[in-house]
Amino acid sequence: MRRGRGTISPVSLIATRGLTKNFPQVVALDSLTIDVGAGVTGLVGANGAGKSTLIKILLGLLPASSGSATVLDLDVVRQATQIRSRVGYMPEHDCLPPDVSATELIVHLARISGLPPDAARERSADVLRHVGLAEERYRPIGGYSTGMRQRVKLAQAIVHDPELVFLDEPTNGLDPLGRDDMLALIRRIGTEFGIAVLVTSHLLGELERTSDNIVVIDAGRLLRASSTAEFTQVTGALTVEVQDPDSGANPRDRLGHALAAQGLQVAPAGGLLRVDIVDESTYDIVRDQVAELGLGLVRIEQTRHRIEDIFIADATVEGVPDGDPA
Amino acid sequence: MAIPPEPEARRSVIHDIGYRKYDGIRLGEGYTWRTLYDLGLRHCYGLGRAAKYKVLPMLMLAIMLIPALIIVGVQVIVDLGEQVLPYSRYSVIMLMVISIFVAVQAPALISRDLRYRVLTLYLARPLRLDTYVYARVAALASGLFILTGLPLLVLYVGSLLSGLSPGSETVDVLGGLGGAAILSVVLACGSAVVAATTTRRGFAIAAIITALVMSYTIVATVQGIADEQGNTDVAGYAGLFSPFTLVDGIQVALFDTEASTSAGPPGAVGGLVFIAFAIVLVVGCMLVLLRRYRKLAGR
Fold it and tell me: How far apart are alpha carbons A30 and A52 in whole angstroms?
């Protein structure tokens, strides 16, 4: 199943082996084996793919049906308490009481993590500043916007300076600007703060810029695990639109055949062509073939990745697929 | 590197010292327990919460103290020669105030974390579920003990000021405080179970207040009828079924006080039955509560 090679850093912060979780109605995790190293790792999957279930098992909050898992080399069943003192967790759902201020909540939770009172106060002020909560941190949380709430949730996850932090859908409910801020903050946590991050999302695109590695799961199974760079390289595709200024006779398929003859993976996508990028030369081949056929190049652009692309990539048969009249 | 000074930069400078690691000590479960307990107890009286949450518990505490203060006032002015109101009877007389307090504060401590799912944030930390549950119930019981015990101390001080025998008053007030402590534990455990079954505050408040007031009314009615028919055993044992009369019966058995109801526990056996019943009730409630939380933890 795993396709990436040499992409996962040698030290595994999270390792699962044949991890399975059956709920009465569904199989949430199906024999999942993954390794997660330092830096920022994106865990991508559609809603219900098993992302939150995986995190709960890793925190020792939910027992697995079978298989095993370790976090920071600690067993999730036997050493859950030790794990929880060294990791942080930002849940997907709302989890903040409305009747206390952010400062009070964060100080309290820092103490619950074992920090003495003075250290708890100091670090709370620090992390609230880092996540960008200013004066409002003294007001009751009940009056906060979604963006502010997400920041408070993030602050409580890192207030005790964990070695690893689980962020479950941190961009949920944020507007585009808030989303960018949150992703930048996550990037900082993974690099500048030196805390390893496992961040989930149902959007592959938004994690591409943030993560060093990407793990994609679907229906509780591993679909793909590799570095973000390799990911882009392998699944990168071009969208090409051409028109024939002379006859107008199906320029899309004429170019498609020409590119396939050059050994490229081509698929029709509506009136457009989707060309898999092998390397830099792919762009040249497309340009040359368009010129050779005397077609007009309307546009050539890198396709935006979505999880669906990976499903398609896994399911497609070699060669020029259907929709081709040849 | 020399950067030409810009007016903007000179006006306000933010020194970003960057992220600082924490290498200090991390304290263990005892400290965590105390932290949870302290905050729970403070929240019992709305301290640290928004202003509107302080009103009711503080008001209830004030109402609890008013009769004691009046009695003390009268005692000091007019020499009555004896304690007007036995310490052991104070809680039964003020049961409505105590019921309102516990009905509002049990959900504040228990249902709140479930409703807003704050429990998740606790469980993701190095804190055992049992520790969390015990700390919460202990905080509620302590909050109740302040409510039920403080008026007794006021009465005690008043009785000393008015020149009653310090020896017998001290013995009596200690018995009263013992009863108040038992009542606080029984009420905290019972109301915590109700509060943990629902995330809806209003529902929990109504359920707790109804259970406490109804059970007392039924017990009083049954005792009245049984007493009239001369059936003192039935009248006595009926007291088991309301927390207030149950604890009153235990006070009769342990501290040799006079029953606040028409019939106390019948004889020495009756006293033991009352004590055993209270223990079973508290242990049972805690087991139910822990089971409930284990179920919630996986969600």
Answer: 14
- Summarize pLDDT for A217-256 with one digit per residue, the tens: 998 999 888 777 766 655 567 888 888 877 667 888 888 8
Residue that wins the pLDDT comparison between A281 and A6: A281
Residue B47 counted as domain residue: yes
Exposed/middle/buried for A182, CB within 10 Å: 0-12, 13-18, 19+?
buried
Helix axes B95-109 and B29-44, enclosed angle (nearest 10):
130
Quote ipTM for the complex: 0.88
Dist. CA A127–CA B153, nearest whole Å: 45
Provide the domain count of chain B: 1
Q: Is residue B12 part of a domain?
A: no
Among residues B96, B90, B142, B88, which one has the least CA distance to residue B250? B88
Q: Tell which of A111, A122, A160 to mutate to test the B interface (max B CBs under 10 Å).
A: A111
In chain A, which residue's Cα lies nearest the Cα of B19? Answer: A193
Contacts of A104 in chain B (CB under 8 A): 48
At B62, which helix (H) or strand (E)?
helix B52-77
DSSP state of A40: E
Domains located in chain A, CATH noted: 14-232 (3.40.50.300), 237-302 (3.30.70.980)
* A161-182 tens-digit pLDDT: 999 999 999 999 999 899 999 9
Residue B9 lies in a domain: no
pLDDT value of residue A278: 79
pLDDT digits (tens, 9 = 90+) for A265-309: 888 887 888 888 877 788 888 889 888 888 888 888 776 555 455
Query: What is the mean predicted confidence (pLDDT) over B39-62?
Result: 94
Looking at CA atoms only, how far is residue A103 from chain B in angstroms? 11
Q: Considering only alpha carbons, which residue of chain B is nearest residue A92?
A: B120
Nearest CB to A193; choose among B19, B36, B49: B19
- Percent share of chain B, pLDDT over 90: 77
**Do the Cβ atoms of A113 and A79 come closer than 8 Å?**
no
Mean pLDDT in residue range B209-219? 96
Burial A98-120 (b: 16+ CB within 10 A, else e): bbbbbbbbbbbbbbbbbbeeebb
Domain that holds residue B81: 29-297
How far are the Cα atoms of A137, B232, B240 from residue B218, in angstroms, in the given order? Answer: 50, 16, 11
**Interface touch B24/A193, C-beta < 8 Å:** no
Nearest-CA residue of chain A relative to B32? A112
At A306 the pLDDT is 52
The answer to whether residue B14 sits within a structural domain is no
CB contact under 8 A, B124 and A84: yes
Q: Which two tokens stand for residue B194?
A: 């109700």
Tokens at residue A241, please? 């639109």
Judged by DSSP in three states, B8 sits in: helix
pLDDT at A319 over 70: no
Minimal Cβ distance to A114: which of B19, B31, B113 = B31
β-pair type (A87-90, A74-75): unpaired
Query: What is the C-alpha to C-alpha distance for residues B77 and A226, in angstroms, rounded to an integer?
Result: 86
Residues of chain A contacting residue B21, judged by C-beta atoms under 8 Å apart: 161, 194
Which residues are CB-neighbours of A100 under 8 A, at least 6 positions away? A108, A140, A141, B48, B49, B50
Residues 243-272 of A with CB under 8 A from B: none
Q: Which amino acid is at A252?
A: R
